[in-house]
Design a protein that fits this description.
This protein has about 325 residues and is an alpha/beta fold. The chain is built from eleven helices and 13 strands. Bound molecules: coenzyme A.
């Protein structure tokens, strides 16, 4: 039986720190509201006018993951790029990341799935490697959301939450389950597609974007926050239990739970419902905000670099987001 494993991780965030105090100067909000409702104290946004795209942050994270894994560019045969904020409508970020890294990859796949982009990408990489189709796959999740946020009072619920960043993992073959992606679990419920979405530009309309749409702000992301919150707490708990049950392990066996950094209150609700101790649940949303697809690989990379995930650790990744999509992965590092 062949398995896949994570060989290395990398991450990248823009240098610009945007504090809650800075946002308070631009929109009608307060430090107390943001911290109490989301847990976020600061986030990273690209410098205004810098022209940095999600493929740039992704390429940097990818290069760091390759260096961490000790894998040369020529050994990667597939690039999987996840993002909801691609540089262009097309071609996708996978093409751009392959070019920027000079990878001799014969194939690339672009993944959407928003906050679940990394989990979906990891699951695809795992399947290809176990099937013997690919040896080394680079999974990159990267976002530049700041250029697409409504930094006015109208968009304040979204603007205080979302941020820029990237994370990546090199996935390669493994001979045994002692170091392996043990299972991945992916889900979708499209009945909630419009509860967290960005409607324009849209191919259902010609032209796809008009001055009226811009004036109405319908090209900005929108969210039914309460519905998202409720579903996120339930679905993430279920997905963690699903991963543990599938592998015959319990919460006590987990070294760390790395949840999507959606919102600190969501993470705390999941943690309390599962009765997990605080030390076992990773949070960095205080410093980075919600970086959507990048949040899990960014947190995973930080934990590995901080020595919180030595070889042999059992880690569960869990995400929930727009779609709704959700899922989990159980990994023996
Ligand atoms: N600053 C101050 N007030 C804000 C605000 C901000 N940045 N954003 C929204 N508000 C206001 C609203 O205008 C509304 O005011 P009103 O009652 O006068 O109409 C009020 O806060 C909303 O209150 P409430 O609905 O009780 O807020 P909430 O407790 O549901 O919190 C969210 C709002 C968005 C923080 C919450 O719904 C949430 O966390 N949802 C999940 C969001 C998330 O994690 N998304 C990512 C998923 S991947």
């Amino acid at each position: 039986m062949r398995f896949s494993r994570i060989l290395g991780t990398g991450s990248s965030v823009p240098a610009r720190v945007v504090t809650n105090a800075e946002l308070c100067q631009k929109i009608d909000t307060s430090e107390e509201w943001i911290v109490e409702r989301t847990g976020i104290r600061e986030r990273r946004w690209i410098a205004e006018g810098s022209g940095i795209g999600s493929s740039d942050l992704g390429a940097e994270a990818g290069a760091r993951a390759l260096a961490d894994a000790g894998i040369a560019a020529g050994q990667v045969s597939l690039v999987i790029a996840a993002t909801l904020s691609p540089d262009y409508d097309f071609p996708g970020n996978g093409v751009l990341i392959q070019r920027k890294l000079g990878l001799k990859a014969p194939a690339t796949i672009d993944v959407r799935q928003q906050c679940n982009g990394f989990l979906y990408g990891l699951s695809i990489a795992d399947a290809f490697i176990r099937a013997g189709v690919h040896q080394h796959v680079l999974v990159v999740a990267s976002e530049v959301q700041s250029t697409g946020l409504d930094v006015t009072d109208r968009g304040r619920d979204m603007t205080v939450i979302f941020a820029d960043g990237a994370g990546a993992a090199v996935v390669g073959p493994s001979d045994d389950q002692a170091h392996a992606i043990l299972s991945t679990h992916l889900h979708v419920d499209g009945t909630h597609a419009e509860d967290l979405w960005c409607e324009f530009p849209s191919s259902r309309h010609s032209p796809r974007l008009t001055k009226e749409i811009l004036d109405e702000g319908r090209h900005y992301p929108r969210m039914n926050g309460r519905v998202v919150f409720k579903h996120a707490v339930s679905r993430m708990q279920e997905a963690v239990n699903e991963a543990l049950d599938a592998n015959g392990v319990t919460l006590a066996d987990l070294t760390l739970l790395v949840p999507h950094q959606a919102n600190l209150r969501i993470i705390h609700n999941v943690r309390d419902a599962l009765k997990l101790p605080e030390a076992k649940v990773v949070t960095n949303i205080e410093r980075y905000g919600n970086t959507t697809s990048a949040s899990i690989p960014l947190a995973l990379d930080e934990c590995r670099k901080e020595g919180r995930l030595p070889a042999g650790s059992l880690v569960c990744l869990v995400a929930f987001g727009s779609g709704f999509t959700w899922g989990s992965a159980l990994i023996r590092l």
